[in-house]
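Researcher: Next entry in the queue.
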Amino acid sequence: GHLHNSEAFNYGVETWEAYKRGGLSKDLVEEQKKVQEADLLIFQFPLFWFNMPAILKGWMDRVLVQGFAYDLSKSYDCGLLQDKLSLFSFTTGGSQEVYSKEGIGGDIRYVLWPMQHGIMHFCGVKVLEPHICYAPENVSEEKRKEMLAAWTQRLKTLWKEEPIDCSPDWYFK
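Model: Structure for this entry, 173 residues:
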């Protein structure tokens, strides 16, 4: 397609304008349809540099565009995707102690703030408690099997869970 403003490129404006005129690429429209049809969005990834991997962040940047996932006048509890639930399920390289308030990595909730609150909650998505497997490569095979069993069990009861508060208090208390 064409740029809305070829003199001063602004990614947010360009994607919003492309969305409004139906000018997003076919693959992005297909991903948006998947999001529209889903009741629950599960994001499974390894924590990488205290964040989701770049490919997942790129997916969010490209798919969750203004007009589709959010509008500046309709965000957070009034966001455009407020009928959705999300769950971040991830592995870490460090132990649970590393990601504690006293640990070198700080409380894992601090890491989750931009992902869960800044992206999902901003778009209106309700956020379930994250599922975290700490340092699976550094534990016994038995412990890894326990992690998988816990994930399997959680998936069976997921629809009974209540979303987190998603307020600053939840992340920084």
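Model: Residues 35-172 form a domain with the Rossmann fold fold (CATH 3.40.50.360).
Researcher: Noted, moving on.
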